[in-house]
């Protein structure tokens, strides 16, 4: 069972040694996972704790919690001087946020919870005045790798919840 395709060996002449050998920087450039901008989240997903509804309610009310509103599956971006994600506080998010549409992305080293939520879809006006929204694929290479990973996770989960409103087995809301 192979997860990654085999990376071809590149051999370059090494004049100092008079023989052919591997040159590590070339191999690093050919590694298919090295340049993956959607890998490398800095958050702990809290996999065990998130199963407890009581624990899950506590981070939602945390005043330090950070929220990422995605509008039409587009990312909120601070454009200047360098692009970065525009996280908002719980107070700012209250107008669009419900416990049903908040998705816990994880907690950071300081135990600050990070959430994403669907802030609107087609036809809705852009929420939160002053926030610029960009397509995820176009902005991802311009932001930090860890943020691009969180953005991909948030967009994927929100899109999944939009498409799968009910369990295919029992019919319960997801």
Give the neighbour order of strands across the main sheet: 6-3-8-7
Order of helices and strands: EEHHEEEEHEEEHH
The total beta strand count reads 9
Count every helix, treating DSSP H or I runs of 4 or more residues as helices: 5
Describe, in plain words, how this protein is organized in 3D.
- The protein starts with 10 loop residues before the first strand and ends in an 11-residue tail after the last helix.
- The chain is globular.
- It is 24% helix and 22% strand.
- It has five helices and nine strands.
- The strands form three sheets. The protein has a four-stranded mixed sheet with strand order 6-3-8-7, sandwiched between helices. A three-stranded antiparallel sheet has the order 5-4-9.
- It has 174 residues and is an alpha+beta fold.
- The longest helix has 19 residues.
């Amino acid at each position: 069972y192979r997860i990654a395709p085999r990376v071809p060996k590149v051999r370059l002449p090494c004049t100092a040694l008079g023989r052919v050998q591997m040159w590590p920087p070339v191999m690093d450039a050919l590694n298919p996972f090295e340049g993956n901008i959607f890998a490398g989240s800095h958050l702990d997903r809290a996999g065990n704790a998130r199963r407890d509804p009581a624990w899950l309610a506590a981070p939602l009310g945390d005043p330090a919690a950070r929220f990422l509103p995605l509008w039409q599956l587009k990312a909120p971006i601070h454009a200047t001087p360098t692009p970065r994600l525009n996280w908002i506080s719980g107070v700012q998010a209250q107008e669009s946020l419900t416990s049903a549409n908040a998705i816990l992305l994880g907690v950071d080293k300081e135990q600050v919870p990070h959430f994403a939520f669907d802030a609107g879809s087609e036809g809705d006006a852009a929420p939160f005045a002053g926030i610029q929204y960009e397509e995820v694929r176009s902005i991802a290479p311009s932001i930090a790798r860890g943020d691009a990973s969180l953005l991909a996770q948030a967009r994927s989960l929100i899109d999944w919840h939009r498409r799968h409103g009910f369990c295919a087995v029992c019919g319960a809301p997801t």
